[in-house]
Design brief:
With 208 residues, the protein is α/β, with parallel strands linked by helices. Helices cover 51% and strands 12% of the residues. It has a single domain, classed as Rossmann fold, CATH 3.40.50.300. The protein has a 5-stranded parallel sheet, with helices on both faces. The protein has a two-stranded antiparallel ribbon with strand order 1-7.
Length: 208
């Protein structure tokens, strides 16, 4: 009998190594498979550069509602696999709170976004990858030098500032003790093994 596992989402600050973590997990164990659908907003929705922080946040939240349901459906038709998906509601929560703290959105806009998030009652299983601030800054600097994501770096340049990243890293630390979350600060071999052990024991897994 195979186990139907709930999907697992990869969350954390941009530049933290989430994509690398997904690839490492897939290469380390056949238990993991990557979600076969996502939207790269800087490529698929280039006009996002003209939207306000509030508008971008709202679009992302609704996309994360969709991708969560899609990941659940994908898990159902792939028993024995843990479906890995980039980003979830924890990311939206962290980013909108930083926007509010930095006065990038108004109190009323934050209230609306938080209301939408508050009606998302499902708290998904997630890996929060939150490296030290200096590590993130170094990775973002390297990415800019290599020009691997030039559109993204241009559109979201203000989110790469020291003050934004510090606030963001601090907020993600708040998820450290939350149920359904494994919190890590690196994507090395030690963490990969810890994630595998955690994923195999997800309590909501059911036998078929």
């Amino acid at each position: 009998m195979n186990t139907i596992y709930p999907p697992v989402f990869i969350s954390g600050p941009h530049g933290g190594g989430k994509s690398t973590l997904v690839n490492k997990l897939k290469n380390f164990s056949s238990l993991f498979m990557e979600n076969d659908f996502d939207i790269d907003f800087t490529t698929d929705f280039p006009s996002i550069s003209s939207l306000s922080h509030f508008e971008r946040s709202l679009v992302r939240i609704y996309h994360r509602y969709f991708i969560t349901k899609y990941a659940q459906d994908l898990a159902q038709v792939n028993p024995g696999k843990v479906v890995l998906t980039n980003r979830t509601v924890y990311d939206s929560e962290a980013y909108i709170n930083v926007y509010k703290n930095l006065n990038w959105i108004s109190k009323d806009q934050f209230k609306k976004l938080n209301f939408v998030l508050g009606n998302f009652t499902y708290r998904p299983y997630a890996i929060i990858l939150n490296p030290p601030l200096q590590v993130i800054k170094k990775r973002l600097s390297k990415r800019r030098d290599e020009a691997t994501r030039t559109n993204r770096d241009k559109i979201f340049e203000n989110e790469d500032s020291d003050v934004f990243l510090e606030n963001l890293c601090n907020y993600f630390k708040k998820f450290k003790e939350e149920d359904n979350i494994i919190y890590i600060e690196d994507n090395g071999q030690k963490e990969i093994k810890e994630i595998l052990a955690w994923a195999k024991n997800i309590k909501r897994g059911i036998k078929i």
